[in-house]
Amino acid sequence: MSTHFSWLHPLVLLSFLSCAYLPVCLADAEPPTTATGPQILEEFGRQQPQTAARSTTIAEHERQVIMFTIGAALLLLLLATASVGIAVGVFGKPLFLLHMILAGLTVTLALVHVIVGLVWFFPF
Q1: CA 77 to CA 69: how far, in whole Å?
Q2: How many CB atoms within 10 Å of residue 45?
Q3: Which residues contact 66 (CB under 8 A, 6 or more apart)?
Q4: Which residues are within 8 A (CB) of 59 and not within 5 positions of it... i.e. 6 or more apart?
Q5: Within the chain, where are the H helices?
Q6: pTM for the model
Q7: pLDDT digits (tens, 9 = 90+) for 7-64
Q8: How many CA atoms lie within 13 A of 124 on its CB side?
Q9: Alpha carbon distance, N-terminus to C-terminus of the chain
Q10: How many CA atoms, within 13 angstroms, populate the side-chain half-sphere of residue 37?
């Protein structure tokens, strides 16, 4: 069995010995200068505040419109889920799968609505 893998031993040995031929990185002769606390604070004070690009900020009115749209869609999904649920439960219609799909979409959209509302409107 060792004759089948006779090429493996030199390959492993070569891979370990190749590390000796890698160039060694030398440390800098001069250590980097470290800034003190007041120097760092002065640098922050000198920096100009950067304004965010228009594409990344959403105005307050746009946020309210987006939340209203999500809320309206959520209300429609909730009414549709309730209607199909009543049709299944009271009238015995074979729409249980549709009811479960609508319920899943309603819960998902409700979670999105809550998360977006917390992130945009709750002051952390």
Answers
A1: 12
A2: 7
A3: 58, 116
A4: none
A5: 8-17, 37-46, 60-89, 96-121
A6: 0.54
A7: 766 766 666 666 666 555 545 556 566 777 777 777 777 776 665 544 567 888 999 9
A8: 4
A9: 67
A10: 0
